[in-house]
Amino acid sequence: MITIRSARENDLPEILDIYNDIILNTTAVYQYTPQTIDMRRTWYDTKLKDGHPVFVAESEGRIVGFSSYGPFRAWAAYKYTVENSVYVASEQREKGIGKLLIEPLIRSARENDLHVIIASIDASNIASIKLHQSFGFEEVAHFRQVGYKFGRWLDLKFMELLLNTPLHPKEG
Question: What's the CA gap between 121 and 77, in Å, rounded?
């Protein structure tokens, strides 16, 4: 059975293992160098400080995936837009865990009066594209050859989900 819950600091070593495996073995993250536990702790602390959620999928006492969102861009007028991240351990993929991890992100975004969720997805990651489409995300951009990893150029797709919030946006 899979349980989705808010992440805790003691989940960080398993979150780090999942993330580093993705860095080293997939094009889901356009990064070459694995992170350290201190880097993940800083990431987590920043999420908490900024009020951005981090969810984990737990199965039999093990963390098998995690999700979060954070700023899409740093400028003030983007404050109603976030970019999501959803990662599942390699041996747990294609079991519906990603779907379980996106649901609370969307709920949290609505509760926090956000208006747009952006997903940046490697164009070859058909599973992630279909997953996001199942929640109503639509492709809004296709950037060609913007990344280079594993000896090849990578295309990146932006997918977008518009939420019917906030009802009364404010500037500033």
Answer: 23
